[in-house]
Write a structure and sequence with these properties.
Length: 87
């Protein structure tokens, strides 16, 4: 099986632009010292697209995605921050 995704090329004048799959669902939780991310297929593809968007060479270290129940995550989810780093 092959999945192809398109990401929006970084433009310094527009900043980072993210695109989500239709009907995506993502939730997060913390339990037993573990971070749990649950997602339907559209949610997993959407997360992959966000990670690939951040991975572009033109995107600076320190840029991040902040997801919470008011922005992309299901109600009751724990906030999720994914940051580009040079570690």
């Amino acid at each position: 099986m092959k999945i192809e995704v398109d990401i929006i090329k970084y433009d310094k004048n527009k900043g980072i632009q993210f695109e989500w799959e239709r009907a995506f669902g993502i939730s997060t939780d913390i339990g037993n010292n573990e971070i749990v991310i649950k997602a339907n297929s559209a949610g997993l593809i959407s997360l992959a697209k966000q990670l690939l968007t951040l991975a572009q060479d033109e995107v600076s270290v320190g840029n991040h995605i902040h997801l919470d129940e008011y922005n992309s995550l299901e109600e009751g989810s724990v906030d999720l921050i994914i940051e580009k780093s040079n570690i």
